[in-house]
TrEMBL record:
<dbReference type="InterPro" id="IPR036390">
    <property type="entry name" value="WH_DNA-bd_sf"/>
</dbReference>
<keyword id="KW-0805">Transcription regulation</keyword>
<dbReference type="GO" id="GO:0045892">
    <property type="term" value="P:negative regulation of DNA-templated transcription"/>
</dbReference>
<dbReference type="InterPro" id="IPR050707">
    <property type="entry name" value="HTH_MetabolicPath_Reg"/>
</dbReference>
<keyword id="KW-0804">Transcription</keyword>
<dbReference type="Pfam" id="PF09339">
    <property type="entry name" value="HTH_IclR"/>
</dbReference>
<protein>
    <recommendedName>
        <fullName>IclR-ED domain-containing protein</fullName>
    </recommendedName>
</protein>
<dbReference type="GO" id="GO:0003677">
    <property type="term" value="F:DNA binding"/>
</dbReference>
<dbReference type="InterPro" id="IPR036388">
    <property type="entry name" value="WH-like_DNA-bd_sf"/>
</dbReference>
<dbReference type="GO" id="GO:0003700">
    <property type="term" value="F:DNA-binding transcription factor activity"/>
</dbReference>
<dbReference type="InterPro" id="IPR005471">
    <property type="entry name" value="Tscrpt_reg_IclR_N"/>
</dbReference>
<feature type="domain" description="IclR-ED">
    <location>
        <begin position="63"/>
        <end position="251"/>
    </location>
</feature>
<dbReference type="InterPro" id="IPR029016">
    <property type="entry name" value="GAF-like_dom_sf"/>
</dbReference>
<keyword id="KW-0238">DNA-binding</keyword>
<dbReference type="Pfam" id="PF01614">
    <property type="entry name" value="IclR_C"/>
</dbReference>
<dbReference type="InterPro" id="IPR014757">
    <property type="entry name" value="Tscrpt_reg_IclR_C"/>
</dbReference>
């Protein structure tokens, strides 16, 4: 039997922390998390360190774990009516265009995939909900940066490792990301050509709730003809408009 993935083990650890908080009992430290989940102690230490860096867990001075801000932000987004409605919208995009369709939210310098729909034979079939990709070299990620200023981009990306990350079209500096955003805004849509993986082309738009960008919607697949590209962009814009309307009405 194959070993559980880091993603699934990370979810198991978060769930154990959440359940402990709900019980109102003393929170778990790393050793007790290992006992509660059956995950070996050294792996618990590594995964909780990563989850803390992402903001999904916090550790207090007594070395016990509680849920972090990123957990509550993600949980809040997942509970929104517009995101529930997005499932059928994504399915229609995926089947109608023959492309992967996805919703992502910001998680630090990463784009957290919240929902995705993928038709059969597709280059972007590697996508699965819960995965995090670099925010600067994916279409869905860059759409999350739509309203970022130069200073905000520098604060977010100043310490990231650009070299060796992404496909042949990926930006290699914060200035490069900003240049792509300027181009995207002029077009009114993010078009990412082989930025995350070779052979993958993405179209993406931000989802705004009336106050700020809360998520992004994107489609990804092989390079399209000019006519099919226009169709994909139009279909994506139609869905984005409906989701923005729903998000703007949310309490």
């Amino acid at each position: 039997m194959s070993q559980p993935s880091s993603f699934l083990q990370g979810l198991t650890l978060i769930d154990a922390v959440v359940q402990r908080e709900r019980s109102r009992r003393l929170a778990h430290n790393a050793s007790r998390l290992s006992e509660a989940t059956g995950i070996e102690r050294s792996r618990v230490s590594r995964l909780t360190h990563e989850l803390r860096e992402l903001g999904f867990l916090e550790r207090d001075p007594a070395a016990v774990f509680n849920t972090g801000d990123a957990y509550f932000r993600t949980a809040g987004v997942l509970n929104q009516p517009w995101l529930r409605a997005a499932r059928s919208e994504l399915r229609r995009l995926a089947t109608g265009l023959g492309m992967s369709a996805q919703i992502a939210a910001a998680s630090g310098a990463g784009a957290l995939l919240l929902r995705s729909e993928t038709p059969g034979d597709l280059l972007a079939s590697y996508l699965h909900p819960g995965m995090t990709t670099p925010i600067w070299c994916t279409g869905a990620g860059r759409a999350l940066l739509w309203e970022f200023s130069s200073a905000e981009l520098e604060d977010l990306l100043g310490g990231v490792q650009f070299v060796g990350v992404g496909g042949p079209g990926a930006a290699r500096s914060t200035a490069g990301v900003e240049a792509l955003l300027v181009r995207d805004r002029a077009r009114g849509i993010v078009i990412a050509e082989e930025e995350y993986a070779e052979g993958v082309f993405e179209y993406a738009l931000p989802i705004h709730d009336g106050a700020c960008v809360v998520a992004s919607i994107a489609v990804a697949g092989r390079q399209l003809s000019a006519r099919r590209s226009r169709e994909a962009q139009s279909a994506l814009a139609d869905v984005q408009s409906r989701l923005v309307a729903l998000a703007s009405r949310a309490d």
